[in-house]
Amino acid sequence: MTLFQSALSRARSVLESFIEGFSGTIVCDGYSAYDKLEGVNFANCWAHVRRYWLKADSKNGRIGVKYCDDLYRLERQFKRLSPSKRRKKRQKYSKPIVEEFLHWVETSPFYGKNALAKATEYTLNRANGLKLFLNDGRIEMDNNPAENAIRPNVIGRKNWLFSVSEAGAKANAICLSIAETAKSNGVDFYEYIKKLFTDLPNLGVQQNPEILDQYMPWSKMIQAECSK
């Protein structure tokens, strides 16, 4: 499921209300306001780490980038494995690289306010979260899937009507949630939305909301009638 929520701020309270009742792992960019929520582990994003070392345009910066690239090269090899097999591969091949990289960063004299020092600080402050993907094959090593999912909204909102209002933004979030969830389940969005508009007005959903279960993109009926 791809679920969007619109809010006027990035305050901690927004995330707390959004994940109420959830426990598990969240992959995020390391935003400090989202740290230390009860029952939640934050797996931090290696793409953000790589970006910081790339900005440190120097010999040491390139060394940091190479560590990240080595991890991504392995991830491409592990991509189609089951979570359990991917975890085993990460433990065997990725873990030594992560440990070597963090040891190199921790023992290197990168001080000051330059780009290299910022890359060092960013990495070490998120070291625990950067290691979480090694222990769970379900976890991606970056939050690129979330950023890619939201990109159409970021680009489109400059042209869409009503995006300037809070209500319009929330409406966009609902529409995008439906569209992206359909896509991630292999459902043809045009056929899907056509079926929703054709069927739902006649089914008394207000009185029997459980009917909606049959119309979720992963339901057998929708998969049979609306798959690409």
Structure description:
The protein has 228 residues and is mainly alpha-helical. 56% of the residues lie in helices and 4% in strands. The protein contains ten helices and two strands, in the order H-E-E-H-H-H-H-H-H-H-H-H. Strands 1-2 form a two-stranded parallel ribbon. Helix 2 (46-55) runs antiparallel to helix 3 (59-78), helix 2 (46-55) runs antiparallel to helix 5 (115-125) and helix 3 (59-78) runs antiparallel to helix 4. It is elongated and about 70 Å long.
Q: Which helices and strands appear, and what pairs or packs with what?
A:
Blueprint: H1 12-18, E1 24-28, E2 40-44, H2 46-55, H3 59-78, H4 83-107, H5 115-125, H6 127-131, H7 144-156, H8 166-184, H9 189-199, H10 220-226
Parallel strand pairs: 1-2
Helix pairs in contact: 2-3, 2-5, 3-4
| Assembly annotation | single chain
- The secondary-structure class comes to mainly alpha
Our Rg estimate from Cα atoms comes to: 21 Å
What's the arrangement of strands in the largest beta sheet? 1-2
Strand content: under 5%
In the predicted model, the low-confidence regions spanning at least 5 consecutive residues are: none
Quick one: overall form?
elongated
Distance between the termini: 17 Å
Q: Compute the number of helices.
A: 10
Report the sheet with the most strands, covering strand number, pairing sense and barrel closure: 2 strands, parallel
Percent helix range: 55-70%
DSSP strand count: 2
Indicate the mean pLDDT: 88
